[in-house]
Write a structure and sequence with these properties.
This protein is mainly beta and about 150 residues long. It has one helix at about 1-15, and strands at about 20-35, 35-50, 55-65, 75-85, 90-100, 110-120, 125-135, 140-150. The protein has one domain (about 1-150): Beta Barrel (Porin). Helix content is about 10%, strand content about 65%. It is elongated, with a radius of gyration of 15 Å.
């Protein structure tokens, strides 16, 4: 999956600025769970979306999220997303990428997900997102749901 997503994100970042739609930054919080265990999370993200015509977009995002528990560290995410503009104020999207280890003995993981983003004002937005983490080496699969608030530039 990394062999596909990273070149896609690089290509999107190198795309002509004339196609640029918007940069964004956000703060978010949510819930992370794996079999038999649920934890709160907090994080930040920054991204850039490119218009693909009047009804679609693609973008990239870097993020840092922490499971709010002792012994955990910030897990950095590198994500590409592709979606539709459901209305002038609403976006629906799917995403995928790679997340680094959230603790010393944990495994890094690829992630896939989906989300909904709504503009409250010209620059202020909110979003809700689901992610499923595909871990390796027998580590349990995990999930996260987060809600965020951000600014667009």
């Amino acid at each position: 999956m990394r062999k596909v997503l990273f070149p896609l994100m690089i290509a999107l970042a190198a795309a002509s600025p004339a196609l640029a739609n918007e940069a964004r930054v956000e703060a978010r919080g949510g819930v992370y769970w794996e079999p038999g265990d649920t934890k709160a999370t907090a994080g930040v993200a920054a991204g850039y979306d490119f218009d693909l015509g009047s009804a679609a977009f693609a973008g990239g995002e870097v993020s840092g999220d922490k499971i709010l528990e002792s012994g955990r560290k910030v897990a950095f995410g590198f994500t590409g997303r592709l979606g539709v503009k459901a209305s002038p104020a609403d976006k629906l999207y799917i995403d995928g990428g790679h997340t680094t280890k959230p603790c010393e003995l944990c495994e890094s993981a690829e992630h896939i997900g989906a989300g909904y983003e709504h503009n409250f004002a010209s620059r202020l937005y909110g979003k809700v997102e689901y992610r499923h983490f595909l871990t390796h080496n027998g580590a349990p699969k995990s999930n996260a749901v987060s809600a965020g608030v951000g600014l667009k530039f």
